[in-house]
Amino acid sequence: MTDVFRLGDDLGPAKVIHVREPGLGLAAVLVVDNVARGPSIGGLRMAPDVSAEECFRLARAMTMKNAAAGLAHGGGKSVLWGDPRMPREHKERLIRAFAHALRNEHDYIFGPDMGTDETSMAWVHDEIGRAVGLPAAVGGIPLDEIGATGWGLFHAADVAARHLGLVLEGARVAIQGFGAVGKHAARFLAAHGAVLVGASDSQGAVVVDGGIDVAALARLKSEGRPVGDYPGGRKLDRESILDVACDIWIPAARPDVVREDNVSRLKTKLVLEGANIPFTPGAEKILHERGVLVIPDFIANAGGVICAAMEYAGATQAAAFQAIEEKIRANIEAMLASVTERRILPRDAAVGLAVARVRAAMATRRFGIM
Ligand code: NAD
Fold first, then answer.
1. How far apart are CA 101 and CA 44, in angstroms?
2. How far does residue 172's CA lie from ligand 1's centre (Å)?
């Protein structure tokens, strides 16, 4: 168990649980990182190469994300060993058995992650009643369908643009990844007068200087066609989205897409990180030195987790949207105030904000010593 001790620090983990059921082939780990702000929420990841160490890192990331989002929830994560594409009956048996084993672990609320989805969460809900990201049939808010994360990105854009003296009406936007996050961000921004000049997917990019009709592009994608099929404009390879001159650049696809070796290609004033860890720390630092404002992932893309927490609280879709708007705007304002006052990177300011919130909560607890 030295491994576990080596990975701990003064914030957590609060609890680590290893679940094993050899008869079923079940091997899984739960890490509850910190619950000072409330029961932890975090995804259940299913993959053949998951590790306890990865679970520790992801649980800490959730502590930071939930605190930064201003939620009354701590951070946790669980990993289940196995191929998520295994026959459905076997997957269901494993997930139900894991949930059942954690039936008394009230410090952890399951959510979907890589290898699990809303159906998996419905199984967990059926077993123990403690899951978010549920199908509408059992009280879920379909966050990707309604664009919860895109709604948050729009408000992040609005607050950050005001800070820069940039007017959203007429601002030129380029989006990498026109999926659940990217297309809704485009929709809300366009509704407020911004102009989508470039969009990409895994197969290519389209650039239209006069602006893309967002609804038409979304329709085309929903038919299973690539963005390159958009009529008119220039068709380019997917990497070319990096070169599109714009005011706002939104990565909403994959991790590590902008690094020290390609960051010089970006020609923008503001970056909103829709994807998780899309930029390396070095690339963020270079942009900061160039005067480009980068709103970090766990602040900018928190709309999804805020929506999930509201779903757990039994809120309506409209109340969830209201909470996303209020929380994201307030958090970005607080982060930008700290950036200006302390002359630090936005990510460092955001982490500082999250850690301060966790420590303040820890100080109120029975064994709080911080
Ligand atoms: P998605 O699968 O719906 O969309 C991803 C899009 O990116 C697709 O259009 C795909 O074709 C495109 N893509 C893949 N590789 C690409 C590449 N190399 N270049 C350009 N485009 C590429 O996924 P999503 O739910 O929109 O999530 C996107 C990112 O945002 C992920 O990193 C995810 O972890 C993160 N995220 C999602 C949410 C959410 O609410 N869905 C919340 C927070 C963070």
1. 14
2. 21
